[in-house]
Amino acid sequence: MKLKRKIYVSNSVPYFYPPKNDKARPSFIQYAINKAKNIDFSRTGLDYFIVATRNFSEKNRFIRKRKLNSHRALAMRVIVQAMLYHYNMLSKLVQASIEQLSDECRLSTISSAGNKSITRASRLITDFMEPIGLIKCEKKWDRVLGHYMPKLITLTPLFFLILDIKMERLENARYQRLGWINKGLIEKGSKPITLDEACQRCKDQQIRNMIKYRLDQHNLKLKVNRAKKLVSLNEVEAKQKILRNLISRYSVIELTVMGFSGLKKQVNIEYFFLKKLFFNDQ
């Protein structure tokens, strides 16, 4: 009797689902994505080397060569499409986090406890694509929240070489994009910018957007935690706690202008907002 081979991944045939209601991508990006769809990465001859250690001793360090298995090759095909979709031609950065790429490629899994895992995508990127030189990852420290931001992913020339895309075509697309930006700047009465300046501006904007998003998510988490504590109380106790918080937040003049009815209305609004936030998080 022939035994069936065990499938050890949750989604053996991943597929890239672009974000809904997103703008049409530039023609070069569409061209590159179509090239990626038709490449079997398990047959491109890609190998990678793992530096392994025994007993953490430098003397016993050895190099082990491994081939790209079929499951990882399929995951790589869709990850490459997602990276190209979010690729900024000017900054050469992928404008998406590893978690977002994993979600859009259906590579993320949810445990029975409700915890999300993006291991399949993160290992593909950090243990394979980065070591062989397809991408470069850069970590930046978030001084506001006190830990690292999601990695900034840069696509290298080798990435496009694997897809059989000439660098001249990419450079032409970059300068075409720059010309479109400079046209808009000139119409507004501003000076045109160089390719390096455009690259730096795009990178800085991406970092600012990342910080803002993370800060918004952090503040939302704080509100959800506060909502959980308030919902555990009865309505009277919860509203009294909100009232004390509002009194400490506003000045005497603001409270006088607001009046008793205005303050009561504000308490009710915040109570029902936090209650709704709690139930939406369930």
From TrEMBL:
InterPro entries reported for this sequence: Plasmid_replication_init_RepA (IPR003446)
Record has Ribonucleoprotein as a keyword: no
Keyword Protein biosynthesis on entry: no
Domain of life: Bacteria
BP GO terms, sorted: DNA replication; plasmid maintenance
Swiss-Prot/TrEMBL keywords: DNA replication, Plasmid, Plasmid copy control
Its job: This protein is essential for plasmid replication; it is involved in copy control functions.
Membership in a protein family: Belongs to the IncFII RepA family.
Identification of the protein by name: Probable replication-associated protein RepA1
UniProt organism field: Buchnera aphidicola (Anoecia corni)
